[in-house]
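Annex B.
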Amino acid sequence: MADHTRARVLVASNRGPVSFSSAPDGSLTLKRGGGGLVSGLSAIEDPNTVWVCAALGEADRTAARRSPQGRLDQGGFDVGGQAVRMLDIDPEVFDQAYNGVANSTLWFLHHLLYNTPTAPVFDATAAAQWTAFESYNAAFAQALAAEAAPGAAVLVQDYHLTLVPALLRELRPDLRIGYFLHIPWAPADYFQLLPEELARAVLTGVLGADRAGFHTRRWAEAFADCCEQVLDAKIISGAGARNELSVSYQGRTTKLGVHALGADADFLRERAHRADVDERLAALREAVGGCRTIVRVDRTELSKNIVRGLQAYRHLLRSRPQWRERVVHIAFAYPSRQDLAEYRDYTAAVRRLSEEITEEFATDSWQPLILQVEDDFARSLAAYRLADVALVNPIRDGMNLVAKEVPVVSDAGCALVLSREAGAHAELADDALSINPYDVIGTAEALHRALTMPTAERAERTARLAAAATALPPQQWFLAQLAELSA
Ligand code: G6P
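Trehalose 6-phosphate synthase: predicted structure tokens.
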């Protein structure tokens, strides 16, 4: 018999579709998030879906506590017609799970960010963080088990929830469980920096899913390699054009899917032509005063490689002085994860180098660099429209949507300098200028080539990049995974 009180489709992610801030008088303001997952989920015209997420701060926790079982939609909050269950996890547990394991250990591992002579260190502190990570994942599994109708489809998102598929399967073997990783997967040697017990827990956690999805074949293969080397699991290459990989372990099989999230063209083109963006575009035009522009937009994130990007720009101005007073680098580096010392230090390094570049090259009539650190989406879109060159040079990146958004929004064509280590490179390599993200001189040369690319070629490449970037829009991306899970 159908269960009409429980959900047939569920999504789980650490950061949910809404967040709250509180005023001094205690009133809560709700903000709706954007991004692929939110727009993907809005494609399901089934009110019987539930999104399970974590309360990320005190205001979120207050909202969750004011709602029965954390169900915001039943607590009087307008969450856009969606059912959202926000988990009020003990702040100490949340901090250890989110900052200690997800954003330090797992993020650093999969993005190859460790400076290995000193890190990682798996000591008693790390062990306590891991215990917290287990209970944070268990809280998600329990909430999903409670909300899901018999045989429901559950789509678990990202590295924060890496243990959830297996935990949930134990509680509810009737469910169809999908997992999607939005970040890269580390190569097997590097992955085995983790103590064996943790490495096994991460892999068997994911293998609790019926299907595990990645943005590129490369990350799926890396995951399969780890399963083979650490668990001695069997890897099966499927027949057919897609040649899907499967991992067989302890009598169960998990299929690995490749679903390259695309940019949302309709949303971006409409949003990029609203008045607030036009205003910011006019201001940026004035600031660059007729110079060519090299644009980058990132969170201030170690893996985004902002410092080497600035070094490359400095090298360009040193080695090819003809660009002085003719180009401006617009760098938007928005705050991120400031609870972590590495991120605070990195933010300081970005600022320091920006100041050095300005000191070295600025003239009375020319600022070589505009660095902005306050998050402003409308201004990012304005910069996308204006850019002659976009610089996307991550050390590693699961996908990188900036690389996909710029060609869609660009007014007159934009040359894309793109790291070969971004997931987006798999689809955009033909028309981007590929770089090795560690090679500062090579990056500077690519910037020069991008700046000198003939206008017609730039426009043609941009059109092809935009087509490739929008091949799988968020709604289709989401619905395809749901359909495969239900098949
Ligand atoms: C990036 C990653 C996502 C991840 C998110 C978390 O955008 O690509 O995979 O979920 O960071 O960021 P947060 O601000 O929630 O820590």
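The longest helix spans residues 124-147. The chain has two domains: 7-261+476-486, 265-469. Further annotation is deferred to the next reporting cycle.
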